[in-house]
Specification:
With 147 residues, the chain is of the alpha+beta class. 20% of the residues lie in helices and 45% in strands.
């Protein structure tokens, strides 16, 4: 029996690959050194990490294609033990925004294309009890699937 990889999984894997390129000296941070497609279970001083997840989509048919408007969430954590954790969080947010700000167009598979853009805001916070500052950036992706 063959295996099938959903197009949404291809999208998440593609974004994770783009995130993995965020390392110095070309970027402000090394947040791409530890990228996951799963949510971290514990926020501790083992940070930094960067996770990307699909949080939802809506689909519509457009002629011979299906268009899915997808929302992806990137969560990046920076160890809060550092004196400059908040400043590091801002740098992470800048790197994430910069990586996707001009839009990213890609072919994920035969007949599957995407355009990825960031939304216009980022959240930087320190969750209660966490030893990390967490940066959240939402991406919107248009996923086109030929029928």
């Amino acid at each position: 029996m063959g295996t099938y990889t959903p197009n949404t999984s291809l999208l998440v894997t593609h974004v994770a690959g783009l995130l993995a390129a965020i390392v110095t000296p070309g970027w402000r941070t090394n947040i791409g050194a530890n990228v996951s497609t799963e949510r971290e279970q514990v926020l501790d001083d083992a940070a930094p990490f960067c996770a990307v997840r699909l949080v939802g989509w809506e689909s519509t048919a457009e002629g011979t294609a299906v268009r899915r408007d997808c929302e992806l969430l990137i969560e990046a954590a920076v160890a809060a033990g550092a004196e400059d954790a908040e400043a590091q969080g801002r740098l992470v947010a800048e790197d994430l925004f910069e990586r996707f700000r001009s839009g990213n167009t890609a072919t994920l598979a035969a007949g599957v294309e995407t355009v990825i853009r960031p939304v216009e805001s980022a959240a930087i916070e320190r969750p209660d009890g966490a030893a990390a500052v967490v940066v959240r950036v939402t991406l919107r992706a248009e996923l086109y699937e030929l029928m």
